[in-house]
Design goal:
With 132 residues, the protein is mainly β. It contains two helices and seven strands; from the N terminus they run E-E-H-E-E-E-E-H-E.
Length: 132
């Protein structure tokens, strides 16, 4: 099992489409520490790309300034559910969710993120996966 650390990375959508067709790379901010997960997107006016919270099974948008898309992922980065949340909402916990990816509202649809799609997430500084 991989141990994630706070930092930057890349989210690749469309990894199951074969031959690289339709693949899209998105800048990713990884929030793995308690402090980074707690802060998340609070205090920001927007985000370029996406943010992954790990481990995480549910989110809220209290004190947020903009609506977000939320994708719940299982341990193998398969999308379980995608929802759009307005500020001031509490999301339902997803029992099998291990990671959550957040982006500005409408981004997930543009990227082709929907239930059943498998995502690829890579940390920028990782040359080899950490193991726990």
């Amino acid at each position: 099992m991989r141990t994630w650390r706070d930092g930057d990375g890349t989210l690749t959508v469309g990894t199951d489409s074969g031959a690289g067709a339709g693949r899209q790379a998105v800048p990713l901010r990884i929030a793995a520490s308690y402090r980074a997960r707690t802060k998340g997107l609070l205090g920001r006016d927007g985000i370029e790309g996406a943010m992954m919270l790990t481990p995480c099974g549910s989110v809220h948008t209290f004190r947020m300034r903009f609506p977000i898309d939320v994708a719940y992922l299982d341990r193998k980065f398969t999308v379980l559910a995608v929802t759009t949340m307005k500020p001031g909402r509490l999301g339902l916990p997803r029992l099998r969710a291990r990671h959550v990816v957040e982006a500005e509202a409408g981004a997930m649809e543009r990227w082709g993120v929907r239930p059943g799609v498998r995502l690829e997430l890579k940390a920028a500084s990782a040359t080899a996966p950490d193991t726990a």
